[in-house]
Amino acid sequence: MKLWFLLFFSLVFSLSILAKEKENRLYLKPKTVVGNSEIRLSDFTNWKGNWNPILFENLKAPKILDPESLALTLNVRYLKEFGDEIVYEVMGKEGILLPRTTVVGKKDLERSLWKELQENVDGSLGEEGQSVRLSSEKDSIQIISGTKLVWRNTGRTLHAGKRLFPLDYYFEGKMVHSESIPFLIEEKKKTYFTTREIPSKAVLTDADVALKEFFTADHNKEYMDESPAGKTALGVLTSDTAIEKKQVRTLHTIERGQEVQLVYTVGNLLLKIKTRALASGNRGDEIQVLNLASQKIIKARVQNEGICLLEEI
């Protein structure tokens, strides 16, 4: 009976010791981004215990931690504070604390990226704002103090639009963190603007348009690089608007392939023949039309939309 009691007592005692050891076991996170205030044990480990000491304050540079040193610090700290010896076991590999304590403003971000782009993008970008300009979509960012910042994969070409640029942080020659910073890239373009509101189907004149330069972040739109005077607005164009190529087109009174009514008058006799235009033409132009009945080609003069005159047989 005594033997069974001793075995039972030993088992209970062993389990309590194992449970206590498990309670004092914690995991060190590989990387933790922190602020510049107090840093507690639970900030960079999985610790959830009531005792949660402040281990670091006001870090000015990344700090590397190893499990053995952290365990020793905790054991000594606990003994000093409570006078009781408890063994803490720290699992995991090396960890690092990355303090965000330095603020970089919008202009500094833009200058830094522009310098990197000038060195890597094919062709000369010139001065910022000469042909291309960029702007950070963040007014400022908090960076990790004590690290070297490197822009990564800026590419060999630069197009207008919104783009994320990866920013890497290096400490003691190793990359310890990375984030993406959003920027807006704008290209300078030269195109024709409207000087007044243009109604739909109106033919543009030189007085209706003016050549201007402007910056745009839209890389896909095709603007007019030659004067649109003489072309027809396919829709309403508002005043002082850059004209896109798809918004205007050269239209004729009669378009090639269009079915045309050929009219011929002899005295009081009026003849109408169905034909098809073999060329485009405006009012007064002479074009060739195909007689749909006889399949003969006839010369006719454009009079109005869908109508040509046969002046001679």
From TrEMBL:
Q: Where is the Flagella basal body P-ring formation protein FlgA SAF domain?
A: 191-306
Q: Which UniProt keywords apply?
A: Cell projection, Cilium, Flagellum
Question: What Pfam families does this protein map onto?
Answer: ChapFlgA (PF13144)
Q: Name one GO biological process term.
A: bacterial-type flagellum assembly
What InterPro entries does the record tag this protein with? Flagellar_FlgA (IPR039246), SAF_FlgA (IPR017585)
The lineage's top-level taxon is: Bacteria
Name the coiled-coil region(s): none
Q: Does the keyword RNA-binding apply?
A: no
Against NCBIfam families, the record matches this protein to: flgA_cterm
Concerning PANTHER family, the annotation shows: FLAGELLA BASAL BODY P-RING FORMATION PROTEIN FLGA (PTHR36307)
State what protein this is by name. Answer: Flagella basal body P-ring formation protein FlgA
Source species taxonomy: Bacteria, Pseudomonadati, Spirochaetota, Spirochaetia, Leptospirales
